[in-house]
TrEMBL record:
Residues 1-39 are annotated as: Disordered. It is found in: Membrane. Keywords: Membrane, Transmembrane, Transmembrane helix. This is TPT domain-containing protein. The lineage of its organism: Eukaryota, Fungi, Dikarya, Basidiomycota, Agaricomycotina. Residues 46-331 form the Sugar phosphate transporter domain. It comes from the Eukaryota. One of its GO terms (cellular component) is membrane. It is a multi-pass membrane protein. It comes from Mycena sanguinolenta. PANTHER family: SOLUTE CARRIER FAMILY 35.
Length: 360
């Protein structure tokens, strides 16, 4: 499916402000609802999986953009629905033939969990995928990647508004830093399109809401990217099928013969294998490594869009995006530090409780 590759890192959402300024010890923070599955995966080194993940991540976006712009297949709702359907089938095949989805055995998916958690998150997921893919019809790949730096800010703002996190000076400074950088990139965009900007802004809002809802509704569940896809893909595909007649109708089906099955299936394969690579990436990479890999991937993607699609990137955009990326790295680093501190405090408390139990 045409997932935003940044989901790989952002799915591991954690409490966004679990430590106030000046506190020596963080408050108890919730464990990440989406994390690497407890079942062991085949050993792959970080040096091997990062280039593989980056290759698939860049290829998904460039391939989709090629379909939309060069092949004139301007049907993002259909393409997303096709990716979701392929992913729903693919995860079930892998579940029966490999151990990659053994994490599903640890999840008690009952009717109540499905209706109260999976369903609302899937609706947000579906909206995020459709809107983010539609934005490529109006904006360049490079500019969209720059705008995606605002995702972290949107997550923080929604978390503060919903009172699941408290703002502090450090996070507020990071919000202003990223916002200023994104504003500069928008000001320097030569081919600015207001409709495309609004669509991408809505996509960011849907995606940020989805991530916050994951933290609230899927607290404690262990889902790696592939297990998450196993549950959400069929539900999102169903929602998209309901939307398809009112957005694109039968038009994409008339174009399938022109596109051909090779392009259609290869495009879905690349998107699906990105999620498989994500499972191994999350399993071997530390928080800092994942952050740096994501930053380098974004830079590589922007460079590729300039080289392949002649996208225009102004010096002001380079300067603004550098500021936004610096803020993003600070945000990810701070978030990881809070998690590490929280885990250390929990381990210490558990050790104390064990000692108390050992005493007569």
């Amino acid at each position: 499916m045409a997932l935003d590759p940044e989901d790989i890192k952002q799915e591991e959402i954690i409490p966004l402000a679990s430590m106030k300024d000046g506190e020596a010890e963080p408050r108890d923070s919730l464990p990440p609802p989406v994390s690497a599955a407890s079942k062991p995966k085949p050993k792959i080194t970080t040096a091997v999986i990062i280039p593989i993940w980056m290759a698939f991540s860049v290829s998904v976006i460039l391939y989709n953009n090629h379909l939309y712009k060069q092949l004139d297949f301007e049907f993002p709702v259909f393409l997303v629905t096709w990716h979701l359907t392929f992913a729903a089938i693919g995860t079930r095949v892998l579940q029966r033939t490999t151990n990659l989805l053994d994490g599903t055995k640890d999840i008690n998916m009952n009717k109540d969990t499905f209706l109260k958690s999976i369903l609302p998150i899937a609706m947000l997921f579906s909206g995020s995928l459709i809107l983010s893919n539609t934005a490529y019809l109006h904006l360049s790949v490079s500019y969209i990647q720059m705008l995606k730096a605002f995702n972290a800010v949107a997550v923080l703002l929604i978390s503060w508004a919903s009172r699941i996190a408290e703002p502090n000076r450090r996070l507020l400074g990071i919000v202003l830093m990223i916002s200023f950088g994104v504003a500069l990139t928008s000001h320097g965009e030569a081919d600015f399109n207001l409709l495309g900007f609004i669509i991408q802004a809505c996509a960011v809002g849907f995606e940020a809401s989805r991530l916050v809802m994951i933290e609230i509704l899927l607290h404690g569940m262990k889902m790696d990217p592939l297990v998450s896809l196993h549950y959400f893909a069929p539900v999102c595909a169903f929602f998209n099928l309901l939307i398809l007649p009112f957005t694109e109708g039968l038009a994409p089906f008339y174009q399938l013969q022109r596109i051909g099955p090779l392009i259609l299936f290869s495009n879905a394969f690349v998107a699906f294998f990105l999620n498989i690579a994500a499972v191994f990436l999350v399993g071997v990479g530390s928080g800092l490594i994942l952050t740096l890999a994501g930053v380098f991937k974004d830079i590589l993607l922007i460079t590729a869009s300039v080289a392949l699609f002649s996208a225009k990137v102004s010096p002001l955009q380079v300067f603004g995006y550098s500021i936004a990326l610096a803020g993003l790295v600070l945000y990810k680093t701070l978030r990881q530090q809070e998690v590490d501190l929280s885990l250390h405090v929990r381990w210490y408390r558990i050790r104390l409780e064990d000692k108390d139990l050992d005493q007569p």
